[in-house]
Amino acid sequence: MARPKIALIGAGQIGGTLAHLVALKELGDVVLFDIAEGIPQGKSLDIAESGPVEGFDATLKGTNDYADIAGADVCIVTAGVPRKPGMSRDDLLGINLKVMKSVGEGIKAHAPDAFVICITNPLDAMVWALRSFSGLPKNKVVGMAGILDSGRFRHFLSLEFGVSMRDVSAFVLGGHGDTMVPLARYSTVGGIPLPDLVKMGWTSQDKIDEIVQRTRDGGAEIVALLKTGSAFYAPASSAIEMAEAYLKDQKRVLPCAAYVDGAYGLKGLYVGVPTVIGANGIEKVIEISLSKDEQAMFDKSVDAVKGLVEACKGIDSSLS
Ligand code: A3D
């Protein structure tokens, strides 16, 4: 059986890291696409030359031609511009919307059967636009954010409790922005929910509140440190987890920016929710019950996403 073909649209910081991870994990052969000439070719060759040392079997091809992504099983989209210190994700909307148009048309023409994972910011609006421009089925186009946001939450919690990150699970809902909703009630250490851990005296509510805020600001914390771009290692790992769930039909329960129509009272909006990912893409959107306060935070986050979607429609009249 032929190896899966994985097209990475955008060969910048995340794209290059994705290519390396795909090869190291032997998930398939890589086509690395970018409009910048030489970058995808150079990165692909560099990673391929690590193959004899790492001992992986995968081919890597760098390209500036969409025809090379033909028949891809998975496309991971990072094309566009990342933010710089002082910028919000939303400041990227105008420029990245144009990029989504060309990427969506490229995927539509050459890889219409792919499972498409969008990472470009502002995430929830860009994945919505990419889905519209590509015309692909809604269960096959999804955004990566929840795994990263909950990964950050898990990391900070493991530091607070002094336990393995593997034993910490965490839940983040809503849009990938300042209004994201980390849910303490559904986050656990060794299966024990955070509110119970506060009652047990292992931590304090103030500490949890601090960690929730640090999670919300997790992207900005890295941007402020790097100064020249945004996070790329953890975002790449998170998207790879989604690609692997699809390629191996793992039925993983993963938080993603999925198309929600009906659940959570939403009518056709991309927003971060728990999902099941398997061979059919997004196979299920899991609707959890929310307390009054949680619902209010979720509604605020949804409103922020709706505002960005409306802004996209204002810029490009072909979107509806
Ligand atoms: P960067 O290293 O700048 O790479 C972006 C690449 O896109 C560059 O190589 C560009 O040449 C390329 N590009 C620009 N326009 C096009 C086009 N029309 N077609 C193809 N390629 C193009 O950025 P990065 O890899 O650090 O980040 C990529 C995106 O991911 C940015 O929008 C970030 O804001 C976003 N991001 C999202 C998350 C989430 O959690 C959702 C996290 C981190 C970064």
Automatic annotation (TrEMBL):
**EC number in record:** 1.1.1.37
CDD domains xref list: LDH-like_MDH
A molecular function annotated in GO for this UniProt entry is: L-malate dehydrogenase (NAD+) activity
Q: Write out the residues that bind substrate.
A: 83, 89, 121, 152
**What residues bind NAD(+), as annotated?**
10-15, 34, 96, 119-121
> Transcription among the record's keywords?
no
- Lactate/malate dehydrogenase N-terminal domain span: 5-143
List the catalytic activities from the record: (S)-malate + NAD(+) = oxaloacetate + NADH + H(+)
This protein's UniProt keywords? NAD, Oxidoreductase, Tricarboxylic acid cycle
Instruction: Tell me where in this chain the Lactate/malate dehydrogenase C-terminal domain is found.
Output: 148-307
Q: Which domain of life is it from?
A: Bacteria
Gene3D superfamilies attached here?
A: Lactate dehydrogenase/glycoside hydrolase, family 4, C-terminal, NAD(P)-binding Rossmann-like Domain
Q: Which residues form the active site?
A: 176
Enzyme class at the top of the EC tree: oxidoreductase
**Family designation:** Belongs to the LDH/MDH superfamily. MDH type 3 family.
What this protein is reported to do is described as: Catalyzes the reversible oxidation of malate to oxaloacetate.
The protein here is known as: Malate dehydrogenase
